[in-house]
Specification:
Blueprint (H helix, E strand, L loop, with lengths): L35 E4 L2 E4 L9 E3 L2 E3 L27 E5 L10 H16 L3 E6 L8 E5 L2 E5 L6 H10 L8 E5 L7 H4 L4 E4 L5 H8 L1 H19 L5 E3 L2 H11 L6 E3 L19 E5 L8 H9 L5 E5 L8 H7 L6 E5 L3 H10 L2 E4 L8 H8 L4 E4 L4 H4 L6 E4 L2 H13 L1 H15 L4 H16 L14
Parallel strand pairs: 5-6, 5-9, 6-8, 9-10, 10-11, 11-12, 13-14, 13-16, 14-15, 16-17, 17-18
Antiparallel strand pairs: 1-2, 3-4, 7-8
Helix pairs in contact: 1-14, 4-5, 7-12, 10-13
């Protein structure tokens, strides 16, 4: 998933505090209605007749509600809290990184937008996640949401397990495990009801970072085999139908155990604005090998008088300057590094086309953020990008890098086409709300919390 969170991380102060921020529903709960999207402090209802998205409930396709209508899983109470289950839950969330982590990425953003709403709706959430330089070890985000940070990329898993076994979150009714390429192996040491969130399988990412042979071996050991052998009875949540298919094919997750909860978008400083006078492309996301930013640089060499903005950071950024210099693109590429939400929104508004050549995406939050600014996207047709972009309607999908260059060139040369795709992208993006996402995920958590724990074996997903 493209990393909206990686370019919008909030800075920390050196003390524990309560911090509702501009992205939090706490900031808009007094004004935002269920089924509406708050953008930049302005609440806009979804247009009549638009389709937000289809959901998957336990592997069964469910037709979406009319746009702007209250979901069948919600009522109007508590700012969109799910109906039917009024008992507040104690939810323990395990994640390798939270939304404030420099490498939080789209998974971090998805986790934040879900659990902060659960807390707002009266549930008590304890999150255990990895630490990073300058972070707070313990942070109260809201009165019902506390984050405990410990361990690095690899050590967070044993340290989180040790902390939980020593009593952290001992009173939890249910565990929400975020699997981001490495599992916490909870079926081996934690006898509580559990739900797993996987934005997308990670085989392509491992192979992109470590090469084909070693990457497949690492992915098998850290993700695929544990999911096949230990998690077959666990309910899974994922963010696109493409990711669902990969979970079944690559990780052996039974299709009946998977629920799709498409990501929302906003609120934030997004909205249409003035375009740059010259042709300008934009990439937003983490700088990682699997994002294939070199493909965008190669494309730029064949598009004279076009500039490229790159916003984001990551370990692949260390070689990016050399790649730009080798192609003599120093005067046409601007590398911004980390940018805040306002700057990111301004970049979306100025861009003529938002582009990505990533080889693996579960959905792509940046596609939807660009859409809220009326900016169409162009991408290679892989994974969830085939769902976040409607080819020829809200953007364009290419078969390969050469086709991507050709289709981007067409967009840059056809003002009328760009405007039409941008308007359609905006209209569609306004139907994707985080309230609907959090309602869908919470329903799975509530259903699993109600199933009695069975000793000595994992819980059946649909029992």
């Amino acid at each position: 998933m493209t990393a909206a969170a990686s370019v919008g991380r909030r800075d920390h102060q050196p003390q524990t505090r309560v911090r509702p921020d501009a992205r939090s529903p706490l900031a808009v709960a007094a004004t935002a209605d269920v089924g509406r999207l708050s953008t930049g402090g302005i609440v806009t209802a979804a247009r009549p007749g638009q389709v937000p998205f289809a959901r998957m409930e336990s592997g069964i396709q469910v037709e979406p509600d009319d746009a702007g209508a209250v979901s069948d899983a919600t009522d109007g109470r508590n700012g969109g809290a799910p109906a039917g289950e009024d008992r507040p839950l104690k939810i323990l969330v395990l994640a390798d990184r939270d939304w404030t982590h420099p490498q939080g990425g789209g998974t971090g953003a998805n986790v934040y937008e879900n659990i902060v709403r659960w807390a707002l709706w009266g549930h008590r959430v304890t999150l255990v996640a990895g630490e990073y330089p300058g972070c707070l070890p313990v942070e109260m985000v809201t009165p019902n949401l506390v984050v405990h940070r410990m361990g690095g990329r690899g050590s967070v898993f044993p340290r989180a397990a040790w902390a939980v076994m020593r009593g952290l979150g001992a009173d939890a009714d249910v565990v929400f495990e975020v699997i981001n390429g490495i599992t916490f192996l909870t079926p081996l040491w934690l006898r509580k009801p559990r739900v797993a969130l996987v934005n997308h399988p990670h085989r392509a990412l491992y192979m992109g970072e470590f090469g084909s042979r070693l990457g497949r071996l690492l992915c098998a050991a850290l993700e695929e085999l544990p999911l096949r052998l230990l998690y077959r009875r666990v309910p899974f949540i994922t963010i696109s139908d493409s990711a669902r298919q990969e979970l079944v094919a690559l990780d052996g997750v039974p299709d009946r155990n998977i629920t799709i909860a498409y990501c929302g978008v906003g609120p934030g400083p997004y909205g249409p604005g003035e375009r740059a006078p010259e042709p300008r492309l934009l990439y937003v996301g983490r700088l990682k090998a699997y994002k294939r930013i070199e493909v965008l640089l190669d494309m730029l060499t064949e598009l004279p008088d076009v500039t490229l903005d790159i916003a984001g950071h990551g370990d692949h950024g260390e070689t990016l300057d050399d790649e730009i210099a080798r192609r003599n693109l120093g005067d046409r590429v601007r590398v911004h590094g980390f940018v805040d939400e306002q700057t990111k929104a301004d970049l979306y508004r100025q861009a003529w086309v938002h582009v990505t050549a990533s080889m693996s995406e579960g959905w792509s939050l940046t596609v939807m953020e660009a859409a809220l600014c009326g900016t169409p996207s162009a991408a290679v047709a892989i994974g969830g990008l085939r769902e976040s972009i409607v080819d020829g309607e809200t953007g364009v999908l290419a078969h390969d890098p050469d086709d991507l260059r050709r289709r981007v060139k067409e967009l840059l040369e056809d003002h009328e086409l760009r405007a039409r795709l941008g308007e359609a992208a905006l209209a569609r993006a306004e139907t994707f709300t985080w309230e609907r996402t959090a309602t869908t995920t919470l329903a799975v958590v509530q259903r699993q919390a109600a199933v009695p724990v069975r000793r000595g074996r994992d819980r059946p997903a649909g029992a």
